[in-house]
Design a protein that fits this description.
Number of strands: 7
CATH class of the largest domain: Alpha Beta
Pfam families: Redoxin
CATH superfamily of the largest domain: Glutaredoxin
Shape: globular
Distance between the termini: 54 Å
Strand order of the largest sheet: 5-4-3-6-7
Protein name: TlpA disulfide reductase family protein
Structural class: alpha/beta
Largest sheet: 5 strands, mixed
InterPro entries: Redoxin, Thioredoxin-like_sf, Thioredoxin_domain, Thioredoxin_ResA/DsbE_sf
Helix content: 40-55%
Order of helices and strands: HEEEHEHEHEEH
Number of domains: 2
Organism: Roseateles subflavus
Strand content: 15-25%
Length: about 170
């Protein structure tokens, strides 16, 4: 009888641990609190993202995939910006500031561009090292999707549509 009770207790404990593990898989991680300075000198932090769907793109001027995808990042921003969507391009700490500023100016990037001089923003977003890395954040400040490499922009647009439709 004791063995049967012990087995039942162990089974219940294993089931409880499994349920907790499953629930943690379902929880969506919050975007980290970050501060940054845009190329125009404006100081902002992630609290300004509240209630918006945000696309945070980590990139570098030396990254050919980043340069290739940037027109699509711009098109995505333009398509959704009137509906509560915003974009932040975060240049990696190793990217020369003059190159970043020149790139943003010559391509007339229509969204905020920050240089992550210290690497702190990349660290807080999970120690981003590969570019491009793009993070999509919902209106509640939760990370919904992380793309390493160029995203499938059709799928990205469909996901943005869903997030914008959520209350």
């Amino acid at each position: 009888m004791r063995r049967l009770v012990l087995s039942a207790v162990l089974a219940a404990a294993a089931l409880g641990a499994g349920v907790l593990g499953y629930q943690s898989l379902l929880s969506t991680p919050k975007a980290p609190a970050v501060s940054y300075v845009l190329l125009n000198g404006q100081k902002l932090d992630s609290s300004s993202w509240q209630g918006k769907v945000m696309l945070v793109n980590f990139w570098a001027t030396s990254c050919t995939t980043c340069v290739h995808e940037m027109p699509q990042i711009v098109a995505t921003h333009e398509k959704f910006k009137q509906r509560g969507f915003d974009t932040l391009a975060v240049a990696m700490s190793y990217d020369p500031p003059a190159y970043v500023a020149s790139f943003a100016e010559t391509r007339q990037l229509p969204f905020g561009v920050a240089i992550d001089n210290t690497g702190e923003v990349a660290r807080r977003f999970g120690d981003v090292r590969l570019t491009p890395t793009t993070v999509l954040i919902n209106k509640r400040g939760e990370i919904v999707k992380r793309f390493v490499g160029e995203p499938d922009f059709n799928a990205l647009h469909a996901l943005i549509e869903q997030l914008l439709a959520q209350g």
